[in-house]
Each structure stands twice: as C-alpha cells, then as structure tokens.
Amino acid sequence: MLLKKKIQLYYKKIIQFFFLIIYGKIISQNKKLKSVIIEKINNINHLNVKKFNYKFYRIKNGRVFTNYVETLAIISENFLIKDPSFQQVNGYLKKNYNETKITGTNKFLKKFNGNMLVLTQGASGHLNYAHWLFDIVPKILIAKQKFNIDKIDYYYFSKLTNFQKKILDLIKIDHKKFIDANKYRHVQATNLLAVSHPNYFDKTVFFSHSVMPSWIIYSLRNLFIKKIKKKMFNRIFIDRSDSTQNHCKLINNKEIKKILKRKKFRILKLSNYSFIEQVSIFNNCRMVVAVHGAGLANLVFCKKKTKVIEIIPKNINNKVYQRISKVNELNYKSLKLDQIKNDNRGDVYLNTKQLNQYL
After folding, report:
1. Backbone angles phi, psi at 313, to 5 degrees
2. What is the mean pLDDT of the chain?
3. Residue 17 has pLDDT above 90, yes or no
4. Do 320 and 245 fall within a single domain?
5. pLDDT for res 352
6. Confidence category of residue 10, pLDDT binned at 50, 70, 90
7. Which whole-number Å values give the CA distances from 78 to 64, 81, 104, 131, 312, in the listed order?
C-alpha cells in the first residue's frame, strides 16, 4: 500500500512538471497588466453596492483553470488575478492562496474565440438550487451592468441541469452557449470576462450566505416575481424526502405529514414543480414549514409577514434563511433539534408536541 502511494505521488509530480514546462508557473499579480481592464461597479438595478467593492474584468487572451471542486484561477500572462479567482480548503475561503501557484495548470488548454463570461466557482455552484440562485445568477446580474450579455459567446460553468436551463430561458440567456467546466478544466478566450464573487467574502459559504447582501434578494424578487402564476396554497410543508442531498431529513416524516395534513397544510415535493410554479407557491402562501434545505431559497419570493418555521439541526450554523426572512420582513422562527446520535448526515426527529407549540 505504501509503495502504491509513493508511485501515485511520483506520477502526480511528473504530470505537474510536464504542464509547468508547457504553460509555465502561476504567480501572484504584483503589477498592473495592460491585458486586464478593471471596472468598478457602484450600482446594480439602481441599488447602491459601493461598499462591496465589486469589479468587472475584461482580460485579453485570459485563461481559466478549475479543479471543479474548490479551485478557480483567473489568469493573465501567467499572473493570478486574485479577486475573481476562488479557493476553498475544507469549506473555508482562502484569500491569499490558490492551488495553481503550487500545482500549475495541469490540464491541456482549450482555446475559444470570442467573449467568455466565467460563472463557475467549484462544486458548490454546480447542482445546488440555493447556490445557483444566490451565487451564479447574481454574477450574471453584475456582468450585465458593464457588458451587453447578447454579445457573450460563451458562459463557462458546468453541464446544466433542467432547472438551470429553465431559469436561463426566463432571463433570455441561450444555454447552448454554456461550456462545461468539467469537460474543459483549462480554457482560454480572446476576451475573458469575470466578476467579483457576489457574496463569498470571508470564512465559509454558510457564513457568507448568513450575511448575504440584500441587493441579491431584492434583485431575484424583481427578476422573477413578475413572471408568477397564481397558485394558492395557504399553508405549505416542504417534504424533503425527494432531495438528492442525503442530509437534514426527518426520520418521522410520515408522522409529521399526517399531522400537518389535518391542519390543512399542503404537502409539497418541490421537484414536482417548475421554477416559476415554485416562485408562485411561495409568493402566494401565508405559512411555510420546512426542514433546512435548498428549497427554502424560495423564501426570497415570499410576501411580507409570511410565517416561516425552519426545522434545523442544532449542529448546523447556517442562518441564510433567517437572513432572507429579515430582509423580506417575514415572521421567521427556527425549530432547532438535536441531531440523531451516531448519524453524521444531520437527520433529526421532530416531537409532535413541539411542532404543535410552534404552530
């Protein structure tokens, strides 16, 4: 086993050395580059965002490298452009570190002619509904302040899910222009476009979403609420049993659903509804009960004073839905539960008497 690990390590070093010879060493930017034009963004949809110090980047013959998990490097002339680049290590943002400065860009380069907007950020943005809404769509909104998106030839992201395609259709972006970041980990465009991250400024994604800039919430509301259909469910319970994420689930889900049905709650699996139907449901309901999960991102679309009960394991320090509720002036309560012993997924048991007290 030890010999196998040594062989793997030597092989990895050989690969890195090979690509360092081809593409060169990546170093931190320490001077102003003629190939990089930086524009400050002070307003987004008439909302003042000066304090966030957002920037829009135009990079002539710029390169992008990603390991598709925790690393994104925006590169010009072998200099790492720090602000729009992205590096997590075990879930924490590392502002002064990027893997490419050690490993180089160890994938073959694919060149594209035209304008390419970088949207990818690693694993968190690929499939998760909440990250798509709070991280990726706002990047498009930031870019729109400085560039005509009709003139963008390529969007560098990942293979799109059906719900992502539907949302892109609503904002009139051709999803055929998307370049799969998993297939092409290292690309170059004649005019590379990039933006500062909309909300990930410090610590973890959970922390950043818990203090999310209010302009993101307001902008998402304004963007999609005008497209709603009337779907009146006064009280709703979000059933997470269909979630692809194997965590934060009620082990007595059937029992809780029976109780809520008797109290005239509509039991909903959000995967059965289109994006606009979800927007409509949350905008028209008056009470939401749900276990912590991405579906609660739809609180963005709720009307003022909507009652929200979020069922959340005590060990999860994520206040994103509390933050959205505060910005949207919702009547929010969290029902914090002990995690099931010997269970590392965050599953919980909800005592029915406790639920009745909150209702």
Report:
1. -60, 140
2. 91
3. no
4. yes
5. 81
6. confident
7. 11, 9, 10, 30, 45
- Written as one string, the DSSP assignment of 15-53 is HHHHHHHHH---EE--S--TTEEEEE--EETTEE-GGGT
* Domain that residue 285 falls in: 228-358
Same domain, 159 and 261: no
pLDDT (0 to 100) of residue 127: 82
Give which of 68, 80, 94 is closest to 25, Cα–Cα. Answer: 80
**Residue range 91-113: mean pLDDT, rounded:** 94
Q: Which tokens sit at 258?
A: 């029976």
Tell me the backbone φ, ψ of residue 96, rounded to 5 degrees.
-110, 25
Please report the beta strands in the chain, taking only residues with DSSP state E, as ranges in sequence order: 27-28, 36-40, 43-44, 47-48, 55-66, 71-76, 79-80, 86-89, 92-93, 110-118, 154-157, 178-180, 186-195, 235-238, 266-268, 287-291, 307-313, 331-337
Q: Does the pTM exceed 0.85? A: yes
Domain count, the chain: 2
Q: Can you tell me the distance from the alpha carbon of 295 to that of 243, in angstroms, rounded to the nearest whole number?
A: 9
The residue written with tokens 């998402």 in the block is 220
Q: In one letter, which amino acid is 20?
A: L
310 belongs to a structural domain: yes
Answer yes or no: do 233 and 205 share one domain: no
Query: Do 167 and 296 share a domain, yes or no?
Result: no
Residue 3 lies in a domain: no
The answer on 270 and 121 residing in a single domain is no
Tell me which DSSP letter residue 182 carries: T
Q: Is residue 11 part of a domain?
A: no
Q: 328 by DSSP, 3-state: which?
A: helix
Residues 234, 183, single domain; the answer is: no
Please tell me whether residues 242 and 206 are part of one structural domain.
Answer: no
Whether 206 and 267 share a structural domain: no
Instruction: State the Cα–Cα distance between residues 174 and 157, nearest whole angstrom.
Output: 13
The closest alpha carbon to 247, from 313, 175, 187, 338, belongs to: 313
Domain limit, last residue, from 192, 220, 248: 220
